[in-house]
Specification:
Strand content: 15-25%
Number of helices: 15
Shape: globular
CATH superfamily of the largest domain: Aldehyde Dehydrogenase, Chain A, domain 1
Radius of gyration: 23 Å
CATH architecture of the largest domain: 3-Layer(aba) Sandwich
CATH topology of the largest domain: Aldehyde Dehydrogenase, Chain A, domain 1
Family: Belongs to the aldehyde dehydrogenase family.
Distance between the termini: 72 Å
GO molecular function: oxidoreductase activity, acting on the aldehyde or oxo group of donors, NAD or NADP as acceptor
Keywords: Oxidoreductase
Protein name: Aldehyde dehydrogenase
Largest sheet: 7 strands, mixed
Pfam families: Aldedh
CATH class of the largest domain: Alpha Beta
Number of strands: 23
Length: about 475
């Protein structure tokens, strides 16, 4: 079993202030994989103090954007050399199929680094704006300060890169807090950050539990918190940040709707639903989990979904042929099975799947892909985020009702519409209240496009120019006329 006894604090590997550790358990074998040092309150204080010194006194915020871009590109080159190792770690600790880990968990963040560096190179760091009263006003975009980046386990490298790289490009310093389920890939990233030449104090990486995370986001030395996680936890983070007037960006839960119009191909819709979330066994915040279909074609869509999802190859995530692995934990498995039982109890029709183990699987935290039809919008499985491979097929009478059902949710992270008429699809997209949307596909995580939600899905944006702006303050400078 791998054992990591040190934390990466302020650019140095150092012993933690406590004797606690995190045991990483394989979701496939249910056996321990590694033991990792767990950060405590004293370690957070050390990391924030190092970040504070590096920001207030060090060279990093005062370097030119070109120099910061060069270091990020160096980090990207090192990342590319280790991407197979990173993918293997994510497969082992999270149960992500190795093919999905290589493609989405690692290759996507790797390409994002270069794309975000390109955006920074073209960013208007300083500009002149004509003033109303005479002389121009000079606008400078300056780093916001010390950033606490809190990342969940489901897409750890994607979400880390979406927070950490824009923060570094902006000139911020950062304390990264990975989830206790996924510390191994985060510690490998710390090694790459050290090798890339990021100055001392600029980045710390602290695997820790929820209590330590709560201490970090409430720390008075932090200027901005970037948090991805559940809506319930997001509310607690927002309250903690409000006490210190700390800036905060929240990317929270989702219950995204796929609206199939009457001319949509059921097979194409089913394929999009499969690729929107089944690679991580439905543990994706923007997965399409509510499928809204014309009432007179509901049976077609349910059967197409059942055929597509039941054909997914489930098993050992290290096997390149595996298409869906286990859920991350026994607790998550119990949670998803409870929702399946609730769907049956409330009267939805189970088309495929259920609470039993997949065929041929004897151990691990697995749940079969499950499809319900005849789902009413008021049912629990149509309203609450399940975070597992459970799809609710909901019939509607006309387009207006479809839009009403899509909007009848506390969430607003993502959504999609499927139709042969793209212009009509764009019209539907304009009517659904969500931060991101896809037409004839699940939402594509393009690094040029801002990603985030509305309503209980949070606020703020990551990626794109808007994501970089989230780590910048705008300073206005006016000069007296001679």
């Amino acid at each position: 079993m791998d054992e990591r006894k040190e934390l990466f604090i302020g650019g140095e590997w150092t012993a933690p202030g406590t004797g606690r550790h995190i045991e990483v358990i394989s979701p496939h074998t249910e056996r321990p994989l590694a033991r990792v040092a767990a950060a405590g309150v004293a370690d957070v204080d050390r990391a924030v103090a190092a970040a504070r010194r590096a920001f207030d006194e060090g060279p990093w915020p005062r370097t030119g954007p070109a120099e910061r871009v060069a270091i990020v590109r160096r980090l990207a080159a090192l990342y590319g050399e280790r991407r197979d190792e990173l993918a293997g770690l994510i497969t082992a600790e999270l149960g992500a199929p190795i093919s999905f880990a290589k493609r989405a968990q690692v290759a996507l963040p790797w390409s994002m680094m270069g794309a975000l560096a390109d955006i920074a190179e073209k960013h208007p760091w300083q500009e002149n704006r004509p003033g109303v009263y005479g002389r121009d006003v000079v606008l400078r975009r300056e780093p916001v300060g010390v950033v606490a980046a809190v990342v969940p386990w489901n897409m750890p490298q994607f979400l880390t890169v979406a927070k950490l790289v824009p923060a570094l490009l902006a000139g911020c310093t950062a304390v990264l807090k990975p989830a206790p389920e996924s510390p191994l890939d985060a510690l490998l990233l710390a090694e790459l950050i050290e090798k890339a030449g990021v100055p001392p104090g600029v980045v710390s990486v602290l695997p820790a539990d929820r209590d330590t995370s709560a201490y970090l986001v409430a720390h008075p030395g932090v200027d901005k918190v970037s948090f991805t996680g559940s809506t319930a936890a997001g509310r607690q983070v927002a309250a903690a940040c409000a006490a210190n007037l700390t800036r905060v960006g929240l990317e929270l839960g989702g219950k995204s709707a796929a609206i199939a119009l009457e001319d949509a191909d059921p097979a194409a819709v089913a394929t999009a639903v499969r690729f929107s979330g089944m690679g991580m066994a439905g543990q994706i915040c923007n997965a399409l989990t509510r499928v809204l279909v014309p009432a007179d074609r509901a049976g077609e869509h349910a059967e197409a979904l059942a055929a597509t999802l039941s054909a997914i190859r489930i098993g050992d995530p290290a096997d390149p042929r595996t298409e869906m692995g286990p859920l991350v934990s026994a607790r998550q498995q119990r949670r998803v099975r409870h929702y399946i039982d609730t769907g049956v109890r409330e009267g939805a029709r189970l088309v495929t799947g259920g609470t039993g183990m997949p065929e041929g699987v004897r151990r691990g935290w697995y749940v079969r892909p499950t499809v319900f039809d005849g789902v009413e919008p008021s049912m629990t499985i149509a309203r609450e985020e399940i975070f597992g491979p459970v799809i609710a097929v909901i019939p509607y009478r006309d387009e207006d009702e479809a839009v009403r059902i899509a909007n009848d949710s506390e969430y607003g992270l993502a959504g999609s519409v499927f139709t042969a008429d793209v212009e009509r699809g764009l019209g539907v997209a304009a009517r659904v209240r969500a931060g991101t949307f896809g037409v004839n596909q699940g939402y594509s995580m393009d690094p040029a496009a801002p990603f985030g939600g509305v309503k209980a899905s949070g606020y703020g944006r990551e990626l794109g120019r808007e994501g970089l702006d989230g780590y910048l303050d705008v300073k206005s400078i006016s000069i007296a006329a001679p």
